[in-house]
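Final report, Chapter 2: Outcomes

The project's central promise was a pipeline that accepts a single protein chain and returns its three-dimensional structure in a standardized token representation, suitable for archiving and comparison. That pipeline is now operational. To close this chapter, we reproduce one record exactly as it appears in the project archive, with the input sequence first and the structure output second.
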Amino acid sequence: MAEQFPVAAVRYIVADFARPLDLPPLDGFVIANALHFERDQAAVLARLVTHLVPGGRVILVEYDADHGNQWVPHPISLARWRGLAAAAGLVDVREIGRRPSRFLGSIYAAAADRPGTADGLDPRSANSGVPAVVDDVGVTDAGAGATRS
């Protein structure tokens, strides 16, 4: 990582994102193929969103299905993601990419933002562009300026 992104400050944290986390304020985070392992996705997402600064962004990568299998027990369709995101207080929910999947039809990426602005700037310019990453092995604060103190 340091070779590819020499100016990025990365701090790896091994943790269970389904439990309360001791994190600094984040400009954003990515949940990639991980939230579908949690039964109470709304509670997990609501807890994670509390770490976002105003104008912070969540990126979700998930299977677009409402019924899973033994490997993806609780997938989140895009329609369902819109409701989960809104319930967690996120706005401007939008699909940003999609690919076919031989497992559950397709996999998509979606973005959603916490309302407000950071430092009085437009939310999109206030983000560092390198959000924290939340996956099934931990939380990564990836990028210079990815956290604010």
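Archive annotation: The chain is about 15% helix and 35% strand.
This record, like all others produced under the grant, will remain available to the consortium after the project formally closes.
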